[in-house]
Amino acid sequence: MSPWLALAVIAAALGWWWLSMRAREQAVRAARGACRRFSVQLLDETVALRRLGLARGNDGRLHLWRLYRFEFSQTGGERYGGHVALLGQRLMDAHLEAVNEDDPPARNRLG
C-alpha cells in the first residue's frame, strides 16, 4: 500500500470518528433537553447508538440517519427508555416512553 493511500484511509477514519462524536454530543444534548422538559432525570448522562442508515432529507440528499437510545427515571428507582433520532446533524425526533399508564405514549414526544 502506498503511503498516500494509507494516509487517506487514516484521514477518512479520523473524519468519520470526529463526525460520529459530534452527532453523539448532539444526541446527548437532545436527550438532556427532553428529560428537562418532562421533568425527569437522564440516567448515566449518555446515549447509545442503536441504528445507523441512510435517509433522504428535505433537501433531497442522502444523509446518515442515527437512532440513539437512552434511559431516564422519574424518581431514581426505576428505568424507562427513550430515543433520539438524528438525520445528519439535525434533530428529527426525541421520544420518552410513557411512564404513567394514564399518559398516551405518543404524547411524550418532541420534535
Record keyword descriptors for this entry.
111 residues, alpha+beta, six-stranded antiparallel beta sheet, 1 helix, 6 strands, elongated
Describe this entry's structure for a reader:
This protein is an alpha+beta fold and 111 residues long. It has one domain (3-110). The chain has one helix spanning 3-37, and strands spanning 41-42, 48-56, 62-73, 80-87, 90-96, 109-110. Strands 1, 2, 3, 4, 5 and 6 form a six-stranded antiparallel β-sheet that branches. A hairpin with a 6-residue loop joins strand 3 (62-73) and strand 4 (80-87). The longest helix has 35 residues, at 3-37. The relative contact order is 0.16.
Layout of secondary structure:
Layout: H1 3-37, E1 41-42, E2 48-56, E3 62-73, E4 80-87, E5 90-96, E6 109-110
Antiparallel strand pairs: 1-3, 2-3, 3-4, 4-5, 5-6
TL;DR?
The protein has 111 residues and is α+β, with helices and mostly antiparallel strands. It contains one helix and six strands.
Q: Note the overall shape.
A: elongated
Please give the radius of gyration in angstroms.
17 Å
**Number of helices, counting only DSSP H or I runs of 4 residues or more:** 1
Distance between the termini: 47 Å
Number of domains: 1
Question: What is the percent of helical residues?
Answer: 25-40%
Oligomer: single chain
The pLDDT mean sits at 87
The fraction of residues in strands falls at: 35-45%
* Class per helix and strand makeup: alpha+beta
Number of strands: 6
**Strand count, sense and closure of the main sheet?**
6 strands, antiparallel
